[in-house]
Specification:
Layout: H1 20-41, H2 46-73, H3 79-102, H4 106-135
Helix pairs in contact: 1-2, 1-4, 2-3, 3-4
The chain binds fe (ii) ion (2 copies).
Length: 139
């Protein structure tokens, strides 16, 4: 199994969508992912990792609900496609929790997180920025 070289996510303007509370959410989300990866890497107990997995799951759901609310209020036309993408990540996190409960394999969790982090960064830079463009926050 290959070892994942985790790159701590440095916040930069590339990630900012310029909607202040959404940027705040994204910063927290990224921190949750980092904390979880580090806990796996440090070989912390399955209980701690499970707690961090649930925290990440809950926080991701809250953020998505918040963002979907912004989209609805702003009458963003791509809301259904965007929601479908959110549902993909929720499902992937759900699967990750389920597989960790069956087999608390930290290396596998690190690999999945590596993939989910790339997914999230791409989603922020491509999809979430479309919301900002729509409401005129980014020109
Ligand atoms: Fe989003
Ligand atoms: Fe987002």
């Amino acid at each position: 199994m290959k070892t994942v070289k985790w790159q701590e996510i440095e916040w930069s303007d590339d990630l900012a969508v310029e909607i202040i509370d959404i940027d705040q959410d994204h910063k927290h989300l990224v921190k949750h992912m980092d904390a979880l990866f580090k806990a796996c890497h440090a070989g912390l107990s399955a209980e701690v990792i499970k707690m961090l997995l649930f925290q990440l799951y809950r926080y991701t759901r809250e953020h998505f609900a918040h963002e979907e609310d912004v989209m609805r209020r702003q009458r963003f036309p791509g809301v259904e496609d965007h929601r479908a993408k959110h549902a993909e990540l929720i499902e992937a996190l759900d699967d990750l929790i389920e597989s960790f409960e069956i087999d608390p394999n930290r290396q596998l969790t690190e690999q999945t997180l590596d993939f989910l982090r790339d997914w999230l960064l791409h989603h922020i830079m491509v999809d979430d920025k479309k919301i900002a463009h729509h409401i005129g926050a980014v020109f």
